[in-house]
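Suppose you are handed a protein chain with no further information: no name, no annotation, nothing but its sequence. What can you learn? This example shows the usual starting point.
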Amino acid sequence: MGRLLRRAAMVGRTGEVPVAAVILDGGGRSIGWGANRRERDGDPLGHGELVALGQAAALRGDWRFNDCTLLVTLEPCIMCASALIQARMGCVVFGAADEKRGGLGGVLDLSKSSAAHHHMVCRGGILAKECAALLRDWFRQRRQGAGAAGQSAAPRFPRRCSDP
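A reasonable first move is to predict its three-dimensional structure. Written in structure tokens, the prediction is:
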């Protein structure tokens, strides 16, 4: 997790939310690395977990990951948690909990849902304070930078689809 934290910090310096992930096969070998790249790619699916999953699937030539473990610095969101269930990930280990968007206990726990066709082993809280501090500091700096430039931290969107 320490290595992932360093990678997440590097990603944060590029303007991406500092989240990094790695998938280990049953032998403990890294088969997929990922970090957030939504801003870089302009892709809403550019979450670190999904990037790592795509890389690992390409390497293995398979979409099933029953024997694998995903490590990630932040609890996977609902979209990523669902993708991990679809991929039949064996185990997920995460650092900081995400009480606003987390899909493995923060908002919902999809790993324990009776509707899920696959149930993963999940373990959170690994270097949680360090992972949370990285995210908290990154968002604080981003807000301060936006305020200094006279801009809001979030882009403005129309209230309704029909608004110009």
